[in-house]
Amino acid sequence: MDSFSYRDNALHAENIAVDAIAEKFGTPCYVYSREALEQSFRAYQDALADWPHLVCYAVKANSNLAVLDVLARLGAGFDIVSVGELERVVAAGGDPAKIVFSGVAKTPAEMARALELGIHCFNVESAAELDVLNRVAGNMNLLAPVSIRVNPDVDARTHPYISTGLRENKFGLGVDEAIALYRRAAQLPHLEIRGLDCHIGSQLTELSPFIDALRHLLVLIDRLEAEGIIIRHLDLGGGLGVRYRDEQPPAIADYIGAIRAELGTRQLPLVFEPGRSIAANAGLLLTRVEYVKQTPEHNFALVDAGMNDMIRPALYQAWLDIQPTRRQEEGINAHWDIVGPVCETGDFLGKNRPLTLADGTLLAMFGAGAYGFSMSSNYNSRPRAAEIMVDGDQMHLVRRRESISDLLHLEQTLPG
Ligand code: LLP
């Protein structure tokens, strides 16, 4: 079932008309569907049911505690990149033993906290990091479980800002460097080699880069095994794309199926780190048109959500669908630039959209569940939006709207 759908000309999130959510909690606000989150997570679990696996949701995509809670209850693991994300997972009831820790610049304090909680694996990205991790684990009298992040040098054919698997990126290590680092890891007394890790980019809409990467990694695993270095799990990262407009990304089941087919009889335990493919289409951003402004060059719809609430269009020229929450809305039929209140020309949500709009029209931006709220900021001293989770015919405020005093409370003026 589609968790967001028009019924009687009104957009619903599960069984709730989104207009009622805007009425109750104000705009801008993010609306998530528990059902949609569960469906996408289960698609991974089901496709891997008879294969040893761990699906670690990438917390950065949407780190609201309620989102983490919903996934933790389904047995999710979590991919984290900071101690902040680590503490969120713990606060939401996630199991530390199912956490993988990615990121290029983990601090010793972050490593120590993750070791204390007993995470599943550190995805190590450099020789310097490996040495620090060995030292931190030694000080705690513990063994740190490690994978090395390998850069298989495949072109993910996605936006350059979210492509991470090329040699020129700051992420991971080339194959030869990775082998050298595994040799070193095998010598260090406070490390335990667990797996091999890679993540080649985000919003991938084709299978071939994933399969290319996998082939490179399998060759590497064999080379390591020939030296007596045994890889016990293969972490293929995240990256599966979603449909925002007319993209045709593979279904989750087909993506997993293709990987399993490539592995054949080799029952290597698999780890995945999906973010977008779990959360993107489980969320909407609701925003109201404050004013329409028609100039000789453009028709502007000035809305109450800005680039501080949703930066993807400004940062990546991302296209997300925007529609009125009620069909047959009265108003002016035109091609609209939907722009926010922030004082930047780059502050737009969508351009040249054929829509019927008027002052007060409530709009929904679809596909906003991933990298929406989690990338939001207080730029222009704008309090961040409320977040609401719908569950059947219930709506729950899962993050209240920030207040002006929230904005000010960490700061102070000079003494005297
Ligand atoms: N694992 C690692 C190591 C990652 O760096 C990422 C995303 C993921 C997993 C999850 O990837 P996903 O399944 O969501 O594609 N802010 C950008 C996306 C940045 C992705 C960064 N890394 C956007 O809004 O498009």
UniProtKB/TrEMBL annotation:
Reaction(s) this enzyme catalyzes, per UniProt: meso-2,6-diaminopimelate + H(+) = L-lysine + CO2
Domain Orn/DAP/Arg decarboxylase 2 C-terminal: 29-369
Active-site residues from the entry: C343
Modified residues (N6-(pyridoxal phosphate)lysine): K60
Enzyme class: lyase
Cofactors named for this entry: pyridoxal 5'-phosphate
MF (Gene Ontology): diaminopimelate decarboxylase activity; pyridoxal phosphate binding
Record's subunit section: Homodimer.
Family: Belongs to the Orn/Lys/Arg decarboxylase class-II family. LysA subfamily.
Name the record gives this protein: Diaminopimelate decarboxylase
Taxonomic lineage: Bacteria, Pseudomonadati, Pseudomonadota, Gammaproteobacteria, Cellvibrionales
Gene responsible for this protein: lysA
